[in-house]
Each structure stands twice: as structure tokens, then as C-alpha cells.
């Protein structure tokens, strides 16, 4: 079967790698990269580290307002799909890339498989939530990471649901044995295990809101903890715009450029705690049993909160400081995201439907 896989952002590159390894055993797979994440630190390094082949099509769309970006992606993807005539399109997660790919395929009556179907934060102010819901309701094969996501889709009346586990866990498990041999990030930054907190901030609700970003920065500084902060390009733009970059340089916070997948896993694994507004980092923290402080008021990864390894603080300064100082989970974790065989499960579903 001829399959087109549509990716465009860091989390999708990570999920693409293990799935592609399984798919290409039996199918012809073409990769479309929309260019949503386009600079070296956010794109090329992931292709190199994860041995993902060069995309067959790189659309070079780049960043922009949601409507403009999604519209440009839709038009460009449609042209490729008309030319290639695949039997199946695979989309991942919650990005504008995902929604554009799903709409383009739907209009051309090409079957759509949506990985991470059914995840819900129930916060419609997040563009990602709209992308998820719309993509789920036009997809043909809904590949769900958790029982919770299955339940969400049943309530919405969506059919053809398959519980397969989480592809991101596949990626971690396939790389975990070699990451510390391939990464020297701990030595390079002079870090010791469990002597720092790792922070990531990139959501528009935090970066584009001066009050929210200032609260987060002030909380980091006032915690007096050593905080390693790989800065997303959009975050750095707003730190400079609000004059917060100068405050950070004189603080306990170590600003570094965006890092590759292996370096990130090493920093996550060895961190004392993680503060983030990223969905993928929440899952990775959970896998490594590192307490996670989520700088959002809601999360689609509800299992991490139910197991009490993740706490939601939003951009509330006092809540963030309190969590950095006091949050110390020790409870049991459940294998809600599967055992690292999601890619095989997904391909089995695709093969059965195609047979």
C-alpha cells in the first residue's frame, strides 16, 4: 500500500521514527514535511538523530497566524496528494500540520489514520484542542493511546477506534539504552544527576501573554533552584520583547539554545523536576518518573495527573513556586501509554483494514 505520512513539528518527528521502521517493512511510505518547525534545532537535528530519511516533500511553510499557516499547508498538501494518489494518509497529534493534512485527504476521499486520536484537554481556547477534535471527526482509522481517549471518542459518537498505546513511548524505549553514550549534555553544562530543574515554555498562551510569561520567569527566579531552560525560538522572541531576557541572565536560570532529542531525554531523565507546557515532555517526564509541573490549567495527558506524577499550576506564580519546592510524588504508575509496542499495533491495524 502507498502511504503518505504528514509531519511538521518536533513531537511528530519523534513519533515518525519508530512507526516508519514498522511501516516500511510492508508498505511504500512517502514523507511530507510541512516545515512548521523549520530551523536546525527544531527540525534537522531530529531527522539526523532518529535516522529519519529526508522527506520526499518539504513544503517550507514555516510559522505564521493559525489560519494563514493552516491554509497554506492545506493547499500545498492537496497538490502532493493529487500527484501521489496514496491509499492512506497518516497524521499525528494536534498541530496545524495534522488538521491541514486531514482536511486535504478528506476532500480527496483518501483514508485518514489519526495517531493520538481522542486526547482531550477540554480547553477550546487551545488551538491544539480544535485541531484534535476536527481531525478525529473526519478520520477513518482512529488510533488511540489510552483507554481514556477511547472513552472520549465513544461519548462523541466516533467509530473505528483502536487502542494501540503511545508511539512516543516506543521512541523512548528504542533509544534509552544508547542516549547517554550519544549525548554529552550533562558534562557540557557541568550538571550532576538530580541537582537541577528542567524547564520548557513554548505555548502561545504563555509566551504571547506578557503577564503569564513574567509570572513564570519570576517563579523560576524566586524558587532559587538551578533551572536549565532550553529556549524555544518563539519564547526567546517574547522574552526579549518584554525585557525579561536581561532579568534571566542575572539569575539562577541557565538559558540554552533548543537541543536535540537525545540531549533532551538525558536532561529529562536526570532532572530533579520538570516544569513545562509541552504535552510530549509531560509524557517523557512520566516515563522517567520525574515529577512534572505543567504550566497550563488543563492537560490532555490526564493519566499523568491521575497517577499524581503531574501537577497543573497554570501561569500562577505562587502555585509554580510551591510546586517547585514541595511537589514530590511517590505513588505507583500505571502503564496507561502501553509497553512500547504501539508502532507494531498500529501497523497491524492498518494491515487488517487493508487486507
Report a brief summary of the structure:
It contains 18 helices and 13 strands. With 355 residues, the chain is an alpha/beta fold.
Describe this structure in words.
The chain is of the alpha/beta class and 355 residues long. It has 2 domains: 2-166 and 338-354, Glycogen Phosphorylase B (Rossmann fold, 3-Layer(aba) Sandwich), CATH 3.40.50.2000; 179-326, 3-Layer(aba) Sandwich (Rossmann fold), CATH 3.40.50. Helix content is 48%, strand content 15%. The chain has helices at residues 10-23, 44-49, 66-84, 96-107, 127-138, 147-155, 167-175, 179-182, 185-189, 204-207, 210-223, 233-241, 244-249, 261-270, 279-287, 302-306, 317-326, 342-354; strands spanning 2-7, 28-33, 57-58, 88-92, 111-117, 141-144, 161-163, 197-200, 227-230, 253-256, 273-276, 292-294, 310-312. The strands form 2 sheets. Strands 3-2-1-4-5-6-7 form a 7-stranded parallel sheet, sandwiched between helices. It has a 6-stranded parallel sheet with strand order 10-9-8-11-12-13, with helices on both faces. Strand 12 (292-294), helix 16 and strand 13 form a beta-alpha-beta unit. Helix 4 packs parallel to helix 5. The longest helix is centred in the first third of the chain and has 19 residues, at 66-84. It is globular and about 60 Å long. The termini are close together. The model has no long low-confidence stretch (mean pLDDT 93).
Amino acid at each position: 500500500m502507498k502511504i503518505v505520512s504528514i509531519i511538521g513539528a518536533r513531537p511528530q518527528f519523534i513519533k515518525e521514527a519508530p512507526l516508519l521502521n514498522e511501516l516500511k517493512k510492508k508498505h511504500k511510505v512517502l514523507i511530507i514535511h510541512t516545515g512548521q518547525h523549520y530551523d536546525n534545532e527544531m527540525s534537522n537535528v531530529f531527522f539526523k538523530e532518529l535516522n529519519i530519511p529526508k522527506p520526499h516533500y518539504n513544503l517550507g511553510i514555516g510559522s505564521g497566524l493559525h489560519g494563514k499557516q493552516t491554509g497554506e499547508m492545506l493547499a500545498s498538501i492537496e497538490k502532493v496528494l493529487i500527484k501521489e494518489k496514496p491509499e492512506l494518509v497518516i497524521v499525528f497529534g494536534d498541530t496545524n500540520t495534522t488538521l491541514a493534512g486531514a482536511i486535504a485527504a478528506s476532500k480527496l476521499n483518501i483514508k485518514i489514520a489519526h495517531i493520538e486520536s481522542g486526547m482531550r484537554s477540554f480547553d477550546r481556547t487551545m488551538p491544539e484542542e480544535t485541531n484534535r477534535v476536527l481531525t478525529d471527526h473526519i478520520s477513518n482509522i482512529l488510533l488511540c493511546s489510552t483507554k481514556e481517549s477511547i472513552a472520549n471518542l465513544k461519548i462523541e459518537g466516533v467509530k473505528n477506534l483502536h487502542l494501540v498505546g503511545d508511539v512516543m513511548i516506543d521512541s523512548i524505549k528504542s533509544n534509552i539504552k544508547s542516549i547517554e553514550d550519544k549525548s554529552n549534555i550533562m558534562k557540557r553544562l557541568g550538571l550532576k544527576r538530580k541537582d537541577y530543574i528542567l524547564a520548557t515554555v513554548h505555548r502561545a498562551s504563555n509566551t504571547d501573554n506578557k503577564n503569564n510569561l513574567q509570572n513564570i520567569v519570576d517563579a523560576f527566579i524566586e524558587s532559587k533552584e538551578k533551572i536549565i531552560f532550553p529556549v524555544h525560538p518563539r519564547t526567546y522572541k517574547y522574552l526579549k520583547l518584554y525585557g525579561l531576557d536581561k532579568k534571566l541572565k542575572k539569575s539562577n536560570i541557565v538559558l540554552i539554545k533548543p537541543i536535540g532529542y537525545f540531549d533532551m531525554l538525558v536532561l529529562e531523565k536526570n532532572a530533579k523536576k520538570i516544569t513545562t507546557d509541552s504535552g510530549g515532555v509531560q509524557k517523557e517526564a512520566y516515563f522517567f518518573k520525574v515529577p512534572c509541573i505543567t504550566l497550563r490549567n488543563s492537560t490532555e495527558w490526564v493519566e499523568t495527573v491521575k497517577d499524581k506524577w503531574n501537577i497543573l499550576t497554570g501561569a500562577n506564580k505562587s502555585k509554580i513556586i510551591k510546586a517547585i519546592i514541595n511537589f514530590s510524588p511517590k505513588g505507583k504508575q500505571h502503564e496507561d501509554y502501553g509497553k512500547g509496542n504501539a508502532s507494531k499495533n498500529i501497523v497491524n491495524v492498518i494491515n487488517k483494514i487493508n487486507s
